[in-house]
Amino acid sequence: MSQLRSRIFLLGILVVLAVILGACTPAPPPPPVPTTPPPPTFEGLSLTTDCAAYPEGSAATFQSIEAVDQFTVVFTLCRSDPAFLSKMAFSVFSIYPQEWLEATAANPAERLESPVGTGPYTLDAWNRGESITFTSFADYWGTPPNADTLIFRWSTESAARVLELQAGTVDGIDNPGPDDFAVIEGDPNLQLIERPALNVFYLAMTNTFPPFDNVLVRQAVALGIDRQRIVDIFYPRGSEAASHFTPCSIANGCAGDSWYDFDPEAARALLAEAGFPDGFATSIFYRDVVRGYLPEVARVAEEIQAQLLANLNIDAEIVPMESGAFIAESTAGNLNGFYMLGWGADYPHVTNFLDFHFGAANPQFGTPHPEIFEALVQGAQIADPAEAEPFYVQANNAIRELVPMVPVAHGGSATAFRADVTGAHAAPLSNEYFAAMDPGGRDTFVWMQNAEPISLFCADETDGESLRACEQMMEPLYTYEVGGVENVPALATSCDPNEDLSVWTCTLRQGVKFHDGSDFDANDVVATFTMGLDAASALHVGNTNAWEYYDYLWGLINKPAE
Questions:
Q1: How many other C-beta atoms can be found within 10 angstroms of the C-beta atom of residue 524?
Q2: Separation of alpha carbons 445 and 84, rounded Å
Q3: Which residues pair with 65 in a beta bridge?
Q4: Radius of gyration (Cα) for the chain, nearest Å?
Q5: I want to staple 61 with a disulfide (CB 3.0 to 4.6 A). Which of 57, 302, 380, 554 is the partner?
Q6: CB-based contacts of 227: which residues, under 8 Å, 6+ apart?
Q7: pTM value?
């Protein structure tokens, strides 16, 4: 027994030692815990300049644009700008992806015909001369379109557009002719929606070509055109002879004296005083594209031709031009003669009409007049319309005195649709938004407008038919409410100013994708504005390369000396 107890005792000691030794043996290392790498540091882009470096008399807007973090952009201005949000909402200032801008800088053709945006529709195909097809963007951040496919077609003849609408081959048309209003209203299968006359048609002259370098000649023309007769014969209801360049419904648009009354006798006396008692020969240039401001282009040209001859003995040859060439030549101030052009509101502020046309950077009418643009610079910095009014009185009176053009009419216009289209509208700014329209439950919405777009890169376009197409695909930081003029957030959720409206901090919408699948962030905003504003940037490549809206409304930097 003692021997057995000894064995049991030894066995117990061995067990205890095993336990102790097991406790002292290091445990195997735990399996590695997977770690998520830290997000890459955001390196924000910036665009800066010296406000004093802007050319004299330019818009001189931006001191800097900075991506302070992935979803915040700060715009620091050289002066207060109460119209900042209204300008930002204009589709020309839509945002493109930084990488796409860099990749297409050496390939302008791709920019002009294959844009990449964030909008509800993406480009499917552009069949030149026939149609443009858009398809719904599956990753759109907002409300998806009602119709999966959107097709743009065009015809210069209003009668042809109406016939297609009556036949049901299109769902909506722009600018039915004055005689078609009653036809559409009398058809139970159609609906007519009228647009307010936020536009102007004008007869322009370029003061670098004689005899239009003589202000007495220009004043004689102002007195010698019967503008009311033109409106009465060629314009639909809702139109009026223009008392000022800007429609009176826009604050300060009609500040100052009204335009000259028709007085052919006084006109002939002024022309004789200018040295042309027997008149002179010239040209009238136009493009055969119907607009709300000019519904019957060729007939109005013939009427003006007849009035010039009868009232002033001015013998003017009519010269039709292709739309793109006409815009390029008139923009550059290269048309030696009269030319017929107009303007529809892009945003509802007097700066849109006056600053664009009569600012120091615009050569359209020849040498700009400081009597006009210096007052405009002052007025543009004042938020209160009543406080700004004296500057617009000064500017409008100078326009009347110097006559860079003759404002003829503010034209009423309309859109028309099949009766079963819901959400149909005629936008006051002519920026109809087709994603909000339902073509009676059909998968395809077909729109017929007046002309084919010139390009689909609208950062460097002013053509309304081009802009409307771009607006289906592209989005700015702010936009306008559907069918209205109030600006509302789009790619920004807010843009908040400092006290004197000289610094605007924009918070960007998160989770937005471009049509190419890339993510939207603050660097895309800075790259887009660098493309438009910095004439020395490799990104500054467009169609006309005039960059009119960027230049006349914001002011280009590093602009080459002329």
A1: 26
A2: 34
A3: 47, 75
A4: 31
A5: 554
A6: 241, 242, 259, 262, 406, 407, 408, 409
A7: 0.84
